[in-house]
Amino acid sequence: MGLISKLKDKIFYKLSASGNDFIFLLNLDREIDADTEGPSLAKALCRPKFSVSADGFILVEKASSPEANFSWRFFNSDGSEAEMCGNGARCFARLLYELGLCDKIMSFQTKAGIIKAEVKGKRVKVKLTTPKDLKLNLAVKTEHDIYLAHFVNTGVPHLVLFWEDVSQAPVEKLGRILRYHEMFAPAGTNVNFVELCKDEGQSYLKVRTYERGVEAETLACGTGASASAYIALKLGLISGEVPVLTKGGEWLIITLEGNDLFLEGDTRYLFSFKIFEDALH
């Protein structure tokens, strides 16, 4: 059976979180081959102007682990598969709850590990996988300069650079260079530009992220916001609950409890739809 025939009567869903938007498809019978058809579907459907448009495409599948309610296969808009996505995880949990497939508290499998989530109305809180590969105060050399940066994996790899005025940061230009830097080969890295701010005594972070797989700046990145907050906490630049202001103007709340890192913010359950053949060409 061809892909067009498989998708003829399928219902797709679109959700967003902090400006990241995602297309979802239930694939509980594994009719869609995630390995061969997932990447091409992601590239076709995520195209702006010519198709649905999104930052990522997510297949909802049955879990193989008894610890999880469901599992996912997550594809970036360029068709590459990612281990984890914080905002995608929050949308995933909201969708499962809205469809009556899970209670408010759930767990699901990703390639980064088991993710736990709690739906609180429009807000969703997820417990990310334990941060790993922490490297502080790296000297990252490029053709034009040397940058002081920090690295951590919060489900996917993230480089963090603190910037005096993040609104002036060369996110697209420098982000692209650092994303492919030899220090982070072969997987590459996401790149976060972070400004430490204070308002009436309250500290918070402004974060802009160049995302691997999207290959551009996005309006928000959940794992990037979490990585930025984690680094700021480890450097002693901020303490307690960390508010993060995204490029899209929404707030995320990052908390660290022992080694457990939590990401919380609003989600939007937008619409369901069917696609026609032209969406794939």
Describe the protein in words:
The chain is an alpha+beta fold and 281 residues long. The chain folds into 2 domains: 140 residues, Diaminopimelate Epimerase, Chain A, domain 1 (Roll); 127 residues, Diaminopimelate Epimerase, Chain A, domain 1. The protein contains 5 helices and 17 strands. The chain has a 17-stranded mixed β-sheet that branches. A hairpin with a 4-residue loop joins strand 14 and strand 15. The protein is globular. The relative contact order is 0.17.
Condensed summary:
The protein is built from five helices and 17 strands. It is an alpha+beta fold and 281 residues long.
Question: What's the CATH class label of the largest domain?
Answer: Alpha Beta
Radius of gyration: 18 Å
The number of domains is: 2
Let me know the CATH homologous superfamily of the largest domain: Diaminopimelate Epimerase, Chain A, domain 1
Which bin fits the share of residues in helices? 10-25%
SS content category: alpha+beta
Spans of 5+ residues with little confidence (pLDDT < 50)? Answer: none
**CATH architectural name of the largest domain:** Roll
Major sheet attributes: 17 strands, mixed
Q: Residue-averaged pLDDT, rounded? A: 96
* Helix-strand sequence: HEEHEEHEEEEEEHEEEHEEEE
